[in-house]
Amino acid sequence: MRNAIDHSGRLSTLSPHERSGLIFAGGRATRLGGVNKALLEIGGRRIIDRILHALEPLVSESVLLTNDDSLRHFGSARLVFDPEPHAGVLPALLAGLDAAQGEMCLAVACDMPFVSRPLFEHMLGLDADVVIPRTEHGLEPMHAVYRRSTVKAAIEAALARGDRRMISYFSDVTVREVAQEEWAAVDPAGYAFFNVNTPADREEAQRLASDLRPKD
């Protein structure tokens, strides 16, 4: 077993050519008019475009994992259909890792309009198989970095024994948690972890986008 919660170490040698962005787009949001949340406009830009813009300098490819036909012809991201929609974080993450070409994978949910490039840059410099932020709500697996080879094998083993918990494979990999005092140095308000799930969330995201827009 490689049970480790590491709080030190750097990993800065991998270039963008050895990294993949994984965007988990799921299905349509019934509470938001049935549209896929990736296509919602926040601050005049679709969430998916905001995510791709944030990830582009850090990765050589972006993989869009979905079971929604409305995204079939979406632009620059490579589309991969989710073989187990609604099965939870672990099977979705495994499908994304299986499709990725890069060794280090940056995972993001499609309902996160304020993905933080500086936070991902910081996380890419930390030496572990899983680099994952912890907020007051718990671990954030959808704004995290995964080493494809080791994490994929560990998730496959966890699912084979019937364990679908998000942390079920952690005992078989090295895990580096990014505590609030650490991630707050680059994202003080924690906007990176903001999710749009309801109309109220969408309104709040529009307000935040306006506040965050550079002023002339």
Give your account of this protein's structure:
The N and C termini lie far apart (54 Å). The protein is built from six helices and eleven strands. The protein is an alpha/beta fold and 216 residues long. Strands 1, 2, 5, 6, 7, 8, 9, 10 and 11 form a nine-stranded mixed β-sheet that branches. A two-stranded antiparallel sheet has the order 3-4. A hairpin with a 2-residue loop joins strand 3 and strand 4 (45-46). The chain is globular. The protein is 27% helix and 22% strand. It has helices at 47-55, 89-99, 117-124, 148-160, 180-183, 199-212; strands at residues 4-5, 19-26, 41-42, 45-46, 61-66, 78-81, 104-109, 130-135, 138-139, 143-147, 174-178. The chain has one domain (17-212): Spore Coat Polysaccharide Biosynthesis Protein SpsA, Chain A (Alpha-Beta Complex).
Summed up:
This protein has six helices and eleven strands.
Global shape: globular
Major sheet summary line: 9 strands, mixed
What count of structural domains?
A: 1
Query: Can you give the helix content as a percent range?
Result: 25-40%
Average pLDDT number:
86
- Fraction of residues in β-strands: 15-25%
What value does the Rg take, in angstroms?
17 Å
Give the SSE string. Answer: EEEEHEEHEHEEEHEHH
What do we call the CATH topology?
Spore Coat Polysaccharide Biosynthesis Protein SpsA, Chain A
State the low-pLDDT regions, or none: 1-12
The number of E-state strands comes to 11
Oligomer: single chain
Structural class: alpha/beta
The level-1 CATH class: Alpha Beta
CATH 2nd-level architecture: Alpha-Beta Complex
**End-to-end gap:** 54 Å
Number of helices: 6
